[in-house]
Amino acid sequence: MAEHLSQSELDYPFKLLEYFNGFRISKIIFSACELGVFDLLLTSDPLSAAQVAAKLNLSSDGAERLLDALVGIEILEVDTSQETALYSSTDVSNLYLTKNSPRSLHDMVLYQSQTIYPLWNNLADAVREGKNQNEKTFGLPADQVFETIYRSEEDMLKFMGLMKSSWILDGPDIVTAFDLSPFKTIVDLGGCSGALARELSRQYPSCTVTVYDLPSVTEAAQKHFTQEDDDITFQKGDFFTDALPSADLFVLARIIHDWPEEKCVSLLRRIHSVCKPGGGVLLVEALLFENHRGPITAQVFSLNMLVQTEGRERRPSEYTAILNKTGFHDVQVSRTGKCYDAILAIR
């Protein structure tokens, strides 16, 4: 490790201390979202800590400390030219941290705070045991991954909101990573809220796009996440056990990383059997580097798969081997430079 650190870091470990405090920074943002700070400041003139506290039913002292920390991490602004400090929102907080912004990550924040954060309290046990921590965290068996994720309607909607937030950020890059226009019928397996399917439909208007997911998920998607201009359709089913529709292209976005290799192979063989000749499969995952040196986002995600699921993030060579094993060929990899990458393979 030492050879990678500057002499100044050895003299005083600024970077290590920043890492140590990372969980506190996350909780500052999470708490501000949960308390409604960003939504309040979006619709208000600059407010004092006491005014924020009064409007949100907080303690004045706690509100001031939280607001100051948000200024410190450059998510809020403060004006100290008057006797009383006045706090205001920023473009970043308005765009990403308010509930109703078209690019809102508010649902992602709530899911990270209320589901992922408790799981990560048990990371050491996950590493020690080599299995997820759903039983210790939520009281549900380790082998019931999605029964845990969907343990209540409220929790299911949080997860669906997380997925929607993810594709608001990464969807445009994913659907343009390859030219998918030759694939006229597209099925998004495990497509959840339909957010990525909508990006596909917008980019390829001549294609038919269907979301295939569990009945409870498709019902919730149509009830809570539909849009007026929707031209995607939903089909109910379990892609491990139920009949799959025929299609030119099957999309598996953040699906393969949930499962051990044997289940991935079984699913991809099922897809291969119904995929039209010349059709393909598009995998969307956070790709690890072959040399084990990153990207850190994918490495963190892989640990998250350990604490929450039965799967892991993988390297391009690993995905290529799985795809070839299940009958797909001409594997192409596109790194987007963001959280999620794309792999296209042909039947």
Structure characterization notes:
- By secondary structure, this protein is of the alpha/beta class.
- It has 2 domains: 2-96, Orthogonal Bundle (Arc Repressor Mutant, subunit A), CATH 1.10.10.10; 169-346, Vaccinia Virus protein VP39 (Rossmann fold, 3-Layer(aba) Sandwich), CATH 3.40.50.150.
- The protein is 49% helix and 15% strand.
- The chain contains 17 helices and 9 strands.
- The chain has helices at 7-11, 14-20, 22-35, 37-42, 49-56, 60-72, 91-96, 106-120, 123-129, 134-138, 145-149, 153-175, 195-203, 215-224, 261-274, 296-308, 316-325, and strands at residues 76-79, 86-89, 185-189, 208-213, 233-236, 247-253, 275-285, 329-334, 341-346.
- The strands form 2 sheets. It has a 7-stranded mixed beta sheet with strand order 5-4-3-6-7-9-8, sandwiched between helices.
- A hairpin with a 6-residue loop joins strand 8 (329-334) and strand 9 (341-346).
- Helix 5 (49-56) packs across helix 6 (60-72) and helix 12 packs parallel to helix 13.
- The longest helix has 23 residues, at 153-175.
- It is globular, with a radius of gyration of 22 Å.
